[in-house]
Amino acid sequence: MNIGNVSEQSGLPAKTIRYYEDIGLVQPSRRENGYRDFAVQDLHKLAFLGRARSLGFSIDECRTLLSLYEDRERSSADVKAIAQSHLARVDQKIEELQALSATLRDLVVRCHGDDRPDCPIMDDLTRSDVRRRENIPLEQPSEHW
Amino acid sequence: MNIGNVSEQSGLPAKTIRYYEDIGLVQPSRRENGYRDFAVQDLHKLAFLGRARSLGFSIDECRTLLSLYEDRERSSADVKAIAQSHLARVDQKIEELQALSATLRDLVVRCHGDDRPDCPIMDDLTRSDVRRRENIPLEQPSEHW
DNA sequence: TCTTGACCTTCCAGTAGGTGGAAGCCCTAT
DNA sequence: ATAGGGCTTCCACCTACTGGAAGGTCAAGA
After folding, report:
1. Pfam families from the xrefs (chains A, B) (predicted)?
2. Domain boundary among A36, A69, A102
3. Which of A38, A115, B18, B128 has CA 20 to 30 A from B41's CA?
């Protein structure tokens, strides 16, 4: 099966599939002309990956899930542990964003938003005390959401 | 003022401050020995940036906010518009994560998590229909949370 | 005066998870 | 024979930094 075909059936862009090969998630064979030749199992794996990614699992988690996926003897406890820790992170992120949302909403509501320059949002950003930030965790850009 | 001093007072790592200079957010002068020499205004700008970033504004939004910060004639409407669109994105993200959380929680609850291999989580990831994904937006990795 | 250590500099690479584009084969249909 | 679409590799770019190496600078203490 050519990459275009697999792309269409799995819903993943061809670029992404090549990238997944690069990082070792799939190992399609090659034809004589150099074209990748995907087996049906590869298609299943890619579709599995697409679903796991759409649930927000990281590539590393996907790697583990994939090995569990291919292990017929794996225990459901192993899978559950991964899903649980992912769920905990999602819920944590939700809480952080909700605190952020509340702060922003408060600022937006208090800003009259007209032609005059005075603005509570700017005042807040300019303020050098720390009252506002007491309950707001820092963004962790390294999390790459 | 040396970078270490500014770092301590603004709460931003020195590396980050150098990076902010690289991308043109601050322009400290230089001493004869090559050391950066920050003015008090630079410190204010960096503290402002730190607060805006902690509220989740992107670097590009910070750039705009900074120009508004330095414009005493700016209208509060301009600031409000940026904050509002940011708030909308935050709320959108919260909704997505909540849908995700609900799905994951359901899967986790249904998985008995013992030594046996059968696992609803795996079943869901393996399933090739689209029922589950109907209400779940795709992760947008380009958003870089 | 010498040395130690803290502080500063630049530059390069890496992070996660891809995406965009260029240059160039390959294959099929007309 | 040629046009097109599909396939290949490779390199660069995105966000917002962070880590580390190699080396210059400065102030304090022996």
Report:
1. MerR, MerR-DNA-bind
2. A69
3. A115
